[in-house]
Amino acid sequence: MTIGAFARLSRLSAKALRRYDELGLLEPALVDPVNGYRYYDPAQARTARLVAWLRRIGMPLARITEVIALDDGAAAAAIRGYWAQVEAETAARRDLAAFLIDQLSTEEAMTQVGTLGIRYAARTETGAVRETNQDAVYAGARLLAVADGFGAGGAGASTAAIEALKPVARGAVPAVELLNLLHDAAEQAARAVRDAVADSGGSAAPDESGTTLTALMWTGAQLGLVHIGDSRAYLLRGGELFRITHDHSLVQSMIDDGSLTEEEAASHPQRALLLKALGGGASSGSGPDLDVRDARPADRYLLCSDGLSAVVAGTELARVLAGADGPATAVRELLALAAAAGAPDNVACAVADVVAL
Asked: What is the C-alpha separation between 11 and 6, in angstroms, rounded?
């Protein structure tokens, strides 16, 4: 049928259809080689409407192209994952806006550094199943970081991400500059991962290699958080354990929309599928989540890869963190829990205590 008739059938304008054709989203079934008129198959109306709906929710063109090529079940999962990502990013921006409002509303910006300090420990192990360790971990006076690499170049990617953060985290940083520091750190980590994967050789398949990254940067009174992927950060405060990161994974998006429970997610066949990461095929979304958190004496933080969180229940994490006499003891006992659960994956964790100086 002509473009005009198809426009009426699909309830879209001819201008929109021409634009979809130009963008490669919806090509006509036939183009007259003489006059260039476009003709459409009536069966294309459903795809045309889907494109229009996806455009209305703000989905990027490249992602729309991927979604419309999927069957209904896979397309629904892709849309669910996209919207969960949008909501998570909106929540992160809301938290940053609240931080900025608080800073600008305060007569004297917080610039004091050194009133609090941290004691820390970190360790990573290969586990009982994997032949190599693609996890990387670091704990220092101003930086805690965990990265979980994937793909043939995963080990280099995770190491590169953390190494890129170390220079950024050196020296005292006023709280009002922390957001800029986090932004710079995230960009440097992303570049470092791209370079590491590209330099790892032809077998590394750059589009299939990358890493998660969860890191805390210390200013003396506040902690800046950089997070992408499904490694996690937890806070033990007042005897209660809080998860302070949101997984960028397909199963987390399904938990968020109510189509999957936490228990079902633990055994879901696609539980390892990431929606965002540094490098790799999951990196097409926006960059890491950035957040700023106030620190309090006696806070205890845990950063870990999913080699720990996927096999050890939150209640057990809380028990060990609450009972350990220091970060080193906590790390040792947490790794022992992962080993007792079979250690099917590499595992890495870093624990830090906030202390008054």
From this structure: 8
Copy the structure tokens of residue 327: 């970060």
In total, the chain counts a number of residues equal to 357
pLDDT in tens, the chain (357 residues): 999 898 888 888 888 888 888 878 888 999 988 888 999 999 998 888 888 888 888 888 778 888 988 998 889 988 988 888 788 777 767 766 766 666 555 543 333 334 788 999 999 999 999 999 999 999 998 899 999 999 989 999 999 999 999 988 776 666 667 777 888 888 899 999 999 988 766 544 556 899 999 999 988 778 899 999 999 999 999 999 999 999 998 888 888 877 777 777 777 777 778 888 998 655 445 678 888 888 899 999 999 999 999 999 999 999 999 999 999 999 999 999 999 999 999 999 999 999 987
Could you tell me where the beta strands, DSSP code E, fall in 26-81? Answer: 30-31, 38-39
CA 354/CA 337 separation, integer angstroms: 24
CA distance 330 to 334: 6
- How many C-beta atoms lie closer than 10 Å to residue 193's C-beta? 30
Give the three-class secondary structure for 212: coil
Residue 108: φ, ψ to 5°: -120, 115
- With tokens 């703000």, the residue in question is 58
Starting at the edge strand found earlier in the chain, the sheet holding 347-356 runs: 116-125, 347-356, 300-304, 232-237, 240-243
What pTM did the predictor assign?
A: 0.71
Q: DSSP letter string over 215-262?
A: EEEE-SSEEEEEEESS-EEEEEETTEEEE-----BHHHHHHHTTSS-H
Output the CA torsion 204→205→208→211 (10° steps): 40
What lies within 8 Å, CB to CB, of 181 at 6+ separation is: 168, 169, 173, 217, 224
| Direct distance between the N- and C-terminal alpha carbons of the chain, in angstroms, rounded to an integer | 77
